[in-house]
């Protein structure tokens, strides 16, 4: 049984894992880089070890160093969070060899999931529909050109090792394809040291709908419903919600069955995510498996009532799932906004630096997973995600209006954030109607709408400020008058 877990991560996800471990009476070991010595995860863990310089390669990705800390601290398990080493099958295998319980799938299964091509092949075999495209890796630009012309532009070029929106490009003609081939190759090489490219048909006006997979070491598998993550920028998710407005119970069950088959096809254990694109005609196409705890897992926790980190630990301990598919009920509506430190108007460029002050929203059914505290710093070395703001409601609109209130309450001093954009989106008719697609921001001109909203807000704010100043000055005038009427007392006091 797991008694002490090393968390090989930082930021909000490290805190998220520590929280459940504490509740379960499991000891925690944090690791940190030069940049993170005063981070909350360091303070909240039972023990904390410095592992190197700020750059991820020298700390959070340093396998030897992390392994050394696991062994010297006496941790019997490791939780990798997301990003960093979470989908590194070599690392998972090294842990297995050293008798360290890796809280996630086996190295072998992870290897299969981490390769988009091999994984798609396994899905085809299991009769799970995948996006049409090249039957295998394309060996050079010439072959990619031929396939693109066969299946017709626009197509998507993908490095099979890509992730987090990197190593993929949409191209609409031969010239763009030549260029894209180069960028995808170099992005993938700089991220993971290797590249291999596949070509896929680019699906237009598509939705990103993913399913929570869950399978124990005895082969019991369920899905814990879907999440719609169509609101994206640069193929990276910004806002997620569950249930999806276009998934009815029949569809949920039907695609859910495919998801269970998908988890069996790659012998997946623990929690994972099967991502699909839903074409405008309603068809679902598998795109990839994320072999780890997903960033947006809290919204699924909110509608299922489960603690996913506990579930992960129980599965890693070899316990059978305590429920069957029919026992799982979806309750209410949940939304997540990824609060990023970025400048919407500078093409979402990261905005980093000290945060002297912060107010974290709260209230009924509001959850905020964050590493922020007044006086902390948003580091340029790591992901721009500062907080995940999630709200739940009995109806979609209750969840949405709670989110708007929480976004208004969220104050982060010192860096630019995605909060203003989210207010614009959540107030838009398109979002309210559930008219979502992965090109939502462009399709509905959300950045222009944001500019308008900010202008309006500025006028309203300055009018409100003037009104407040008048009230203030009236108030002080009356105080001054009161004080001067009792000036003799004042004089007396001063003496
Ligand atoms: P990553 O590993 O970076 O997450 P994915 O394959 O999951 O890459 O794709 C990320 C996003 O890119 C999807 O959510 C979707 O918006 C878009 N996308 C991927 N493949 C296609 C496709 N064939 N057609 C249209 N959009 C796609
Ligand atoms: P994906 O985008 O791969 O479909 P997610 O939406 O769950 O899946 O996001 C994973 C992304 O989180 C990674 O691609 C990376 O950009 C980011 N990330 C990685 N490590 C961290 C971390 N420690 N803290 C915050 N964000 C991270
Ligand atoms: Mg993905």
From TrEMBL:
Ranges where the Biotin carboxylation domain occurs: 1-446
Family annotation (SUPFAM superfamilies): Glutathione synthetase ATP-binding domain-like, PreATP-grasp domain, Rudiment single hybrid motif
Primary enzyme class: ligase
InterPro entries: ATP-grasp, BC-like_N, Biotin_carboxylation_dom, Biotin_COase_C, CPAse_ATP-bd, PreATP-grasp_dom_sf, Rudment_hybrid_motif
One Pfam short name: Biotin_carb_N
Gene3D superfamilies, A to Z: ATP-grasp fold, B domain
PROSITE patterns: ATP_GRASP (PS50975), BC (PS50979), CPSASE_2 (PS00867)
Protein name: Acetyl-CoA carboxylase biotin carboxylase subunit
Naturally occurring in which organism (per UniProt): Nitrosopumilus oxyclinae
